[in-house]
Amino acid sequence: LALYFHIGEREEKCIIEDIPSDTLVVGNYKVQLWDVHKHDFLESAPGLGMFVTVTSPTGEVLLSKLYGPQGTFSFTSYLSGEHIICFQSNSTRFAVIAASKLRIHLDIRVGEHFLDESAIQAKDKVDEVNVRLEHLIEQIHHVTREQDYEREREEKFRKTSEETNSNILWWAIVQTLILISVGIWQIKSLRDFFISKKLV
């Protein structure tokens, strides 16, 4: 996931990532500050830091740390589900004064372990094959966890659909019984009315 978004200097911005359990997540970000004179974003945001907070699906805080205007954060999920990743600058200026816009470039990698190519080149061919093999095995484990998580979600969706269909069926039966009961009651009421008026 690679994107950028704008926030106010005192504003908090959160994104939601659906992550399988036991998965490493690595995020890189860079903050740019709006220059009112140039009418453009500066290359960086000098003097500003960024609070990064990560919350698990159960509401537990997995990460809460202050970084600089550019940084890398990482965490490992222990539950599958929607994780909330929030960003907020450490600006201490009053809200009236802190009217600057910030642009945050964000790159999130889920379940990836990157190869250090320079380290690989420094090793002999056997070590290179071993490192690449370990990387492939890790990628296979990640794909397996992703598939298991998708199967869990599909199973939950199927159960929800079956319960909904069952509820719809029972509601239809109840509606039919109510209509039949009302029809019988109306017929009986009309019959009693006609008898009382000596029309039949």
UniProtKB/TrEMBL annotation:
- The regions listed as transmembrane in this protein's record are 168-187
Where it sits in the cell: the answer is:
Endoplasmic reticulum membrane; Membrane
Question: Which ranges of the sequence are coiled-coil?
Answer: 119-146
Q: Which InterPro entries match?
A: Emp24-like (IPR015720), GOLD_dom (IPR009038)
Q: What keywords does the record list, in alphabetical order?
A: Coiled coil, Endoplasmic reticulum, Membrane, Signal, Transmembrane, Transmembrane helix
PANTHER family membership? TRANSMEMBRANE EMP24 DOMAIN-CONTAINING PROTEIN
Family stated for the protein in its record: Belongs to the EMP24/GP25L family.
For this entry, the protein name equals: TMD11 protein
Q: Source species, please?
A: Certhia familiaris (Eurasian treecreeper)
| Gene from which the chain derives | Tmed11
